[in-house]
Amino acid sequence: MRKNIVAGNWKMNMNHQEALALYNGLISNESEMDENVQVIIAPPSIYLSEFSQIKSNRIALAAQNCNENEKGAYTGEISAGMLENLEVQYCLVGHSERRAYYGETNELLKKKVDALLQSERTPIYCFGEVLSDRETGNHFNIVKEQVIKALFHLNEQQIIKVVFAYEPVWAIGTGVTASPEQAQEMHEFVRELLAEKYGQTTAEAISILYGGSCKPANAKELFANPDVDGGLIGGAALKIETFVPVVNGFIK
Ligand code: 13P
User: Fold this and answer.
1) pLDDT at residue 85, rounded to an integer
2) Count of domains observed in the chain
């Protein structure tokens, strides 16, 4: 069975003191968290070293980005090997903000995925259409392209290690969430793509998360869908009071 996952993407928020307080606060609330959910947080990378030394029974760490190269003269970047070294298990790849503001392409993201798998890290591959693509009915094509170009060179043993995160850009930070039907429809579409290429068993083993204005008020109806295996949470991940209820958004 695939995992239910709730991952908090802190983006470029929280000074050191605030970040530490939130992380410690989440750890103190671990007993409140549904034990069938893999909880992940992706703080700014500058905090990963310190957080990785604080014991947590429930919360795994993710980086928000890494470089595609193994090492070298890439000022300002961090490598997949550095994450391995700190035992940071996950890394976001291709978040829409990185695609939009830093020009990350599907071709580049393919290399980042490869670098992470090489270091035995788990890529959380983000994809999703912008509003104009949805309005013109092009959203399935865009998503198909994002998934195929960055991931479909992988073999079955590799693809099964990737976590998928559908984040429609128009829903990120806008307060406008995809409806449960829109989320389910796209997740089902992606799982069908996976099944066509890798077979049903492999497709069924892969977690597909939804992201975009996911919060306590809508997590339950989103996570209730058969192909929605959790969420990638932005704003609501910045407070214990909103993150923990999202983690507990799966109906048992
Ligand atoms: P919001 O939950 O703030 O819309 O952000 C979603 C997101 O981008 C998570 O990666």
Assistant:
1) 97
2) 1
| β-pair type (4-9, 122-127) | unpaired
Range of the domain at 198: 4-250
What atom of ligand 1 comes closest to residue 97's alpha carbon? 8
**CA 141 to centroid of ligand 1, rounded, Å:** 22
Does the structure show a pLDDT above 90 at 196?
yes
Q: How far is CA 25 from CA 31, 80, 97, in A?
A: 12, 28, 27
CATH of the domain at 151: 3.20.20.70
In degrees and rounded to multiples of 5, residue 184 shows phi and psi of -60, -45
Look at residue 1 in the predicted model and tell me its pLDDT: 85
Work out the burial of residue 10: count CB atoms within 10 Å of its CB; fewer than 13 is exposed, 13-18 middle, 19 or more buried: buried
| Ligand 1 lined by 168 (C-beta under 6 Å) | no
Whether residue 252 has pLDDT greater than 70: no
Q: Which two tokens stand for residue 47?
A: 């905090």
- Cα(142)–Cα(145) distance, rounded to whole angstroms? 5
Prediction pTM value: 0.98
* Mean pLDDT calculated for residue range 59-69: 98
